[in-house]
Amino acid sequence: MPMKRLGLAGVAGLLAVAAPLGGALASGGGGGGGGGGGSMPSMTTPEYDPAVEYQNGMAAYQAGKFKDAARNFSHVTEAAPGEAHGWHMLGMAKVGAGDVKGGSKAFERALKIEPGSIDTAREYALTLVTLKLTDRANAELAKLKARATTCADTCADAAALKAAVTAVEQASTPAGAPAAALTTPGGLIFAPDGDAAYVRAVSLINERRYAEALVALDKAEAAFGAHPDVLTYQGYVWRKLGHLDQAEAHYRAALAIAPTHRGATEYYGELKVIEGDLPGAKVMLARLDAQCAFGCVEAEELRRWIDHNGDPGS
User: Fold this and answer.
1) What is the C-alpha to C-alpha distance for residues 15 and 37, in angstroms, rounded to an integer?
2) Which pTM does this prediction carry?
C-alpha cells in the first residue's frame, strides 16, 4: 500500500476532533409570520453535511487547491461551528491561499474552542509573525514556552511543544520563516538536515525502496529527534521488510509520544490484522472512530483491512 497520509503537502495533521457532531447541522427553519397562508417563508441557511464538506476540503487541500479547500472548510464551520478542527483546517486553507489574516482569525476561533491545541497555537503564532503583530506573536510564544517549561520533557506533548516553540522562534528572526512548520496535523518541525532526509524518505517509500528509506528516516531522526511521524514511517518500513516486532515497537513509540496520532493508530491496527489479531485491530479502529467526528481516511482504510481480513486489495 503506498504511503499517502503523512506526506508533506497536507493532512493534516496529528489534531484529533474532540466532540461528536450531534445536531450540529443548521436547521432550515419553518414558515415565517403568523396568521394566514399567504405569508412568505422565512429565509433559510444552506445545509451542509460537515463530513462530506470536510472530506472534500481535505482532498482539495492535499491537491494544493487552497481556495476550494477554504470554501469547503467554511461550510464545515457553518454546519458545526463548535468543532475546533474545522476552524483549524479553515485557517490552514486560508493561509495556503494567501489569506494570512483570514487564517489567523480562523486559528483564533479554533483556540477559543480548544485552547490546548498545540498545532493550532503554533499556526496562530506563525500567522501573527507573518502579519508583523509582534506583541501578540510574542504573547503566544510565551504561552507555548510556559507549557513546555511545565511539561519539562516529561509529558506526552513534550516533543510537540518543543517543536512549536522552535518554529515560532525561527519565524520571529530575520532568517526564520513560517514555512519551517509543515502544514499537516501534528506537523513536523525540521532541523535543516532533517527536512531533506524526511522528504527523501517519503519518496523512497513511495518507490518501495524500503532499505534506503530506513537510512533516510534514521538521518531525519538524528537531525531533530524522535517524532511520531518519523516513528510511524519507520514502523511501516520495518513492516514491509518483514520485521513485525520492530514495526510494532515503532508504532508503540509513536503512540507513546502522540496517543491520538491517526497514522500510527491505523498502521498499528493494520499490523494487528496481519498478525491475526482482529480484536486488537478493532480496538485501534474504535480509537480512530472516536477521534474522527467527520470521518477520516485512516479509519476507512483500517476498516477496509479488517473487512478484508488483511487483504485490502492494495
Assistant:
1) 49
2) 0.53
Q: Is 208 in the same domain as 230?
A: yes
**Residue 251 pLDDT more than 80?**
yes
Residue 216 makes CB contacts below 8 A (sequence gap 6+) with 197, 198, 200, 201, 204
Q: What is the CATH number of the domain that holds 88?
A: 1.25.40.10
CB-based burial of residue 150 (10 Å sphere; 0-12 exposed, 13-18 middle, 19+ buried)? exposed
pLDDT for 36: 37
Check if the beta carbon of residue 106 is closer than 8 Å to that of residue 87.
Answer: yes
In a domain, 314, yes or no: no
**Rg of the chain, C-alpha, whole Å:** 21
Q: How many CA atoms lie within 13 A of 213 on its CB side?
A: 24
- Which residues face 72 on adjacent strands? none
Nine-digit cell string for 43: 429565509
Same-domain pairing of 58 and 170: yes
C-alpha cell at 34: 403568523
**43, part of any domain:** no
Phi, psi of 136 (to 5 degrees): -70, -40
What pLDDT, in 10s, does the model give residues 49-72?
888 888 888 888 777 788 998 999
Answer for the pair 87, 110: CB distance below 8 angstroms, yes or no: yes
Check whether residue 143 and residue 223 sit in a common domain.
Answer: no
Distance CA 187, CA 27 (A): 35
- pLDDT for residue 113 is more than 80: yes
Write out the residue range of the structural domain in which residue 241 sits.
192-307
User: Is residue 139 included in any domain, yes or no?
Assistant: yes
Domain boundary among 156, 180, 204: 180
User: What does the alpha-carbon distance between residue 15 and residue 261 come to, in Å, rounded to a whole number?
Assistant: 8
Mean pLDDT, rounded, of the chain? 76
Same domain (yes/no): 232, 161: no
Task: State the amino acid at position 219 in one-letter form.
Answer: K
